[in-house]
Amino acid sequence: MTPVESFGQWVKQQRKAVRWTQQELAQQIGCARMTIQMIERGQRRPSAQIAELLSEVLDIPGAQRESFLFAARMALLPHTPTTTSTSSSLPALLVPLLGRDNDEVAIRDQLIERNTRLLTLVGPPGVGKTSLAIRVANTLQQYFTDGIVFVPLAPLQDSTLVVNAIAQALAVQDRAHQSLIETVSETLSDRQILLLIDNFEHVLSAGPLLVELLTKATNVSMLVTSRAHLGVIGEYLYAVKPLDLPHNPTASSMVLLEESSAVALFVARARAVNPHFVFDDAVAPVVAALCARLDGLPLAIELAAAQSLLLTPQTMLEHLEHYVPVFDEATDYRSDRQRSLCTALNWSYCLMRLEEQALLARLAVFSDGCTLDAIVAVSDADQRAVGSDMSKHNGTSAITERHIHTLNFLNTLVSHSLVHTSVGRQGAMRYTMLQIIREYAAEHLIKRGEDYIIRYQHAQYYAGIAEKAAKEFYATNNPEWYEMLDEEYYNLQAALTWSLEHEPVYAYRLCGALWFFWYTRGYNTEGRYWLLAVLEHPRELISSAKQAHIYRGIGILASVQGDYAQASEYLQQAVALYQELEDKEGMAHMMTSLGNLTSYQGLLTQSIAWHEQSLQLARDIGNLRGVAMILSNLGSTNIDLENYEQAQTLIEESLALNTQLDDDWGIASALANLGQIFHLRGELNRARDFFDHSLVLRRRLKENRKLADTLQDYGYLQLTCGDLEQAYLYFCESLHIRQQIGEKRGIVQSLEAFALLAAAQYEPQRAYKLLATATALRTVIGALLTPLDRRRIEQSMYTLSHYFALPQRTLEQIEAEPMSQSQAVQYALQGCQKVD
Question: What HEC string does 502-566 produce?
Answer without folding.
Answer: HCHHHHHHHHHHHHHHHHHHCCHHHHHHHHHHHCCCCHHHCCHHHHHHHHHHHHHHHHHCCCHHH
